[in-house]
Amino acid sequence: MSALTDKPAAPAPTRARRIATAGAAVAIAGALTNALGYLVPVIGARQLSSADLSALATVLGLTAIASVPGLGLQIAIAVHRARNGAASTTRISLLTAAISAGALLVLTPALIPVLDLPVQYPLLAALATVPTVYAGRWLGEMQGDQRFLRLAAGMAVLAFGRYGGLVAGLVLGAGLTTSLVAGALVAWVVPPILVFLCRSRKPLVADPIRGREVLTACSATLAMLVASYADLLLARYLLTPELSGEYSVGTVLTKGALWAPQVVTVLALPRLAQGSKRALRKALLLVAASGAFLVAASAVAGSFAFRLAGGPDYTHLGGYAAVFAATGAVYALVFVLINDRVASGAKWAAAPVWVACVALVVVAEFVAPHTLTGVMWSALGAAILAFALGFVGRNRK
């Protein structure tokens, strides 16, 4: 069978062209998502004070963490569909979106004093979370069916919905609060567009996806994103507003190294769901190569990287660029391992990452100095721990 369709296998050159086209489309969509995501703090660094920039980065982190179940929903639906065929996904998708936003609302009273945020910021994050999570339904269906060109279009739509309003508000100088309002409202244009894009005539042939499948995938992706954003939140908590603002610029490099090879995992997931060890080996090699390149580039041009990420006021941090990039590169490898564990139905797929999260909090709070470098090195150590535990766990499956 072809790696990209459920039709009879095509000749090798045709298969290669299809894979290349699909990979290019998803890569472009992923790059667009990353570019818009990076554009927000980059514009914020030029439009906002250090304190507001830190608040913006914190709200983005909260929204990203609350929206992680959307990615888990997408992965669970894609795996279920690749294995079993089309199934009903409406009920589980609505439930996942409601729980995600509801959890953020419940935590709001605790988040306000701990993160020093106005009450409206977590509420706006919850408002934007509902359509962002629900979008995982249609993205998962397209990914599971290996309709990668439509998936790429859907990823682009979601990217504009998540960041378009916020970018517009910041560019127009509307201020942080008004920009967050615009971002939350624009996010609601995503679902109707994805309904049209994902239309399919496939009959429902499989049992509905079970809550346990979604819970496993959501737990794994939530652990992954909590780990990758935990250092930013810890910086907000442990450092001064000025230092945490500087740290937030460094995490732009972390996210770049984390999400740059995203296309590899997206294309590999249906094959991983079918138990392909070859797909896993190729995915790890490609992601490792991407990470090595980005870390080397950051080491050579660290000041330039910080200038691009935050402007000339942050070039003095250039010596730390490779460390921030290395953290993201290691987490990119962890993400491949976690997707493989979810696709293979492993129990406690997220355990290695949750252990690393706990270790990060303990070390940053009680062992490492409460400085920018203390949080930075603690984050890299947690990433390496997560990879080591995930790799050992994979070999013991």
UniProtKB/TrEMBL annotation:
Membrane topology note: Multi-pass membrane protein
Cellular localization per UniProt: Cell membrane
Keywords: Cell membrane, Membrane, Transmembrane, Transmembrane helix
Transmembrane segments: 21-43, 55-80, 92-115, 121-139, 151-174, 180-198, 284-306, 318-338, 350-368, 374-392
Record keyword Transferase present: no
Phosphoprotein among keywords: no
Entry superkingdom: Bacteria
Protein name per the record: O-antigen/teichoic acid export membrane protein
Organism: Asanoa siamensis
Taxonomic path: Bacteria, Bacillati, Actinomycetota, Actinomycetes, Micromonosporales
